[in-house]
Amino acid sequence: MRFILPMLAIAASLASPAAAQLTAPEQAIVETVESGFESDVALLEEITLINSGTHNHAGVKAVADVLVPEFEALGFAVEWIDQSAAGRAGHLFARHEGAPGTTKMLLIGHLDTVFEPESPFTGFLCEGDRAVGPGVVDDKGGIVVILSALRAMKAAGTLDGANIVVALTGDEEDAGEPLEAARRDLVEAGEWADVALGFEGLSVLDGKDAGVIARRSSGSWTLTTNAKSGHSSGIFSEHAGYGAIYEMARILDTFRRELPEENLTYNVGLVAGGTPAELGEDGLSATTSGKTNIIPSSAVARGDLRALTQEQNERTAETMRAIVADHLPGTEAEITIEFRYPPMAPTDGNRALLDKLNVINADLGREPMAPYPPSRRGAADISFVAPYTHGLAGMGPAGSGSHAEGEAIDLRSIVRQAQRTAILMSRLAKEASDK
């Protein structure tokens, strides 16, 4: 047996020659992440048990307070950026100064979740390599991946030369107002950075890890129609017109027929019509009344708009406005369109980053990550910096059920994502900055 065991070890090493491409520091990264797995899960449990719904400002700040010493222990200068003027708690930024002239890296995650204090979904339940809890994937697991990767870089000696800003926003799930103020610090970090990595959940395509080089925008629109009211017996006549609801139906059905194109969606989430119909102050409700023998005087609808590029956003908006302007007789209509989260378009720079990550996958003996279809991903904070820097999203852990009771994480995915991230950042830190 003393002879057989070494031979088995040699055979195993020959069976995965790709792993031999790792440098000694990179091999140390792999081992450090693996050895820190239980500590990472413990940290995940600690911050998951703190409710940090976006509007629970004290909870968001409490999560930040747990993380501050974690970053300071790695040599980061930590800053809490108060956002009370925008109606939100604030953002946690951590900065590490490395070698001058080398790649500047921005890591993006968020402290808040969709689960407010009144949510019945609480706790942290670990079942083998799976854990369930509010925000456990989105995005507390992503924060743990960031810290696990940075600790491994520190242990391997590759963190010292790295220029890094970690931006953990406190309102990703419901951004503060005005949006320009709520995202000012993130945008400034994006203008500084050569590369941005977003640590929301890992995408899986046909059972395999995938890379996210693009995410669609998230905007909204509000449509109102108005018409002369009167006795229903006059509907469609020259003197009475078509009424507000038929005008609304015309517009929405024309959207359905004329707008479709790849990577574009435009959901209708709310419709109300009658005499009168009024949108609630929250924009999420409406009140109306009416009779079958009265031509309705008003109607209102709200929906969203998601596109892959800003050009697609603007072109679609112009088409929508033209459709709205083509009124039925006796009616009027108006649409307002708000672009909030911009798109993260699939650029050559983003593709090049995924190529570099796939070299690492090969060196680790793992399968390559195909680009994930952008139509399957929602908007995220990384989109705000997409115009200024190359980016990869989906660098957080794998899981299921985000934004719903029963949200779960694949705990072992923390390991492979942290290993990929730390090696990618270590290699990028040796390259020259473009800025």
Description:
The protein has 435 residues and is of the alpha+beta class. It folds into two domains: 17-215 and 344-428, Aminopeptidase; 218-341, 2-Layer Sandwich (Alpha-Beta Plaits). The chain has eleven helices and 19 strands. Helix 2 packs antiparallel against helix 11. The protein is elongated. This is M20 family peptidase. Pfam families: M20_dimer, Peptidase_M20.
List the helices and strands and how they pair.
Elements: H1 4-15, H2 24-35, H3 37-48, H4 57-72, E1 77-82, E2 90-96, E3 104-110, E4 125-127, E5 130-132, H5 140-156, E6 163-169, H6 179-182, H7 184-192, E7 195-198, E8 203-205, E9 208-211, E10 218-227, H8 243-258, E11 268-274, E12 277-279, E13 286-288, E14 298-305, H9 310-325, E15 331-341, H10 348-363, E16 370-371, E17 390-392, E18 399-400, E19 408-410, H11 412-428
Parallel strand pairs: 3-6, 3-7, 7-17, 9-16
Antiparallel strand pairs: 1-2, 2-6, 4-5, 5-19, 8-9, 10-14, 10-15, 11-14, 12-13, 18-19
Helix pairs in contact: 2-5, 2-11, 3-5, 5-11, 10-11
Question: Would you summarize the structure shown here?
Answer:
InterPro entries: Bact_exopeptidase_dim_dom, Peptidase_M20, Peptidase_M20_dimer, Peptidase_M20A. The chain has 435 residues and is of the alpha+beta class.
- Quickly name the level 1 CATH class of the largest domain: Alpha Beta
List low-confidence stretches.
Answer: 1-19
* CATH homolog superfamily of the largest domain: Zn peptidases
Order of helices and strands: HHHHEEEEEHEHHEEEEHEEEEHEHEEEEH
SS content category: alpha+beta
| Cα radius of gyration in angstroms | 26 Å
| Number of structurally distinct domains | 2
Protein name: M20 family peptidase
Keywords: Hydrolase, Metal-binding, Signal
Pfam families: M20_dimer, Peptidase_M20
GO molecular function, one term: hydrolase activity
